[in-house]
Amino acid sequence: MSLSQNLSSRLQSKTVRQSIISSIAKDFNLTRILAEAYFNQISDYFLRHAELTLSTGQLQYLAVEENEPAGKPIALCRKVPVRLTLQNADEDLTVYKKSGLRGLREHKVTRVTNEAIDQGGVLSYEDIAFILTCSVVTIKRDMSRLRRQGIILPSRGWRQQMGRGQSHKTQILDLYFRGYQFTEIEHKTHHSETAIKRYLQDFARVALLHLKRFSTDEIRISTGFSHRLIGEYLALYKQHAQRPALKRILQTSKKRRTASQ
């Protein structure tokens, strides 16, 4: 090793990153490779939870990851940080003048629920009650009323109550495959185009693996999705296999995956 290479190596070993890795290796009796792997993983956790920038009236909340199955203990579920809008003065004032306090609360319930979904999380009744400082009974009543109006509002409690009914994702995908446009689905379900496109990408992953003759267990391992969601997506695929919208999504996904390889 040349003198310049030796000097560069010594200077690199004095960085904060390398110092922390060395401490991890020493404190936990790990090899340097394992210590560096732990450091990288922990750094990723911190970045994921600290990178959210908040505007006035917003808060950061830890929500259960949307693909976690209903009924799984909260402590064992993956969590994602989400940015929620508690107050939007101009928007909220307009709703309050038109619909009163109950209308404003229902507007906020819809907003935080869909903001969480847009960022890959799902809120429980208890989460929403805590965020909006009201009772769980009130939130359940509000969400039941909104759902009777045809607004799709996913929550962990609702998914458990649904039994074998379709998930909100499957309902939204069904509308898309039947020919509804993004704007129509947004208006009908109060889900953003961002969330709808993410559901389509997830569906395409399952469908393409199915076409490669992956079993349900293999698809679950590859995607991390629940058996129930995979089953719904496969049933949806069989139902709409010949529809142009479904074929177009699979072709687009195939091209994207080929280009990235």
Task: Give a quick set of tags describing it.
2 domains; Cyclin A, domain 1; 261 residues; 3-stranded antiparallel beta sheet; 13 helices; 3 strands; mainly alpha
Separation of termini?
36 Å
Report the β-strand fraction as a percent range.
Answer: 5-15%
Specify the biggest β-sheet. Answer: 3 strands, antiparallel
CATH domain class name of the largest domain: Mainly Alpha
Q: What's the rounded overall pLDDT mean?
A: 83
Would you tell me the structural class of the helices and strands?
mainly alpha
What name does the CATH topology of the largest domain carry?
Cyclin A, domain 1
Number of strands: 3
Under the CATH scheme, the architecture of the largest domain is: Orthogonal Bundle
Contiguous uncertain segments of 5+ residues: 160-165
Number of helices: 13
Side-by-side strand order of the widest sheet: 2-1-3
Please tell me how large the radius of gyration is.
23 Å
Listing every helix as H and every strand as E from the N terminus to the C terminus, the arrangement reads HHHEEHEHHHHHHHHH
Number of domains: 2
TL;DR?
This protein is mostly helical and 261 residues long.
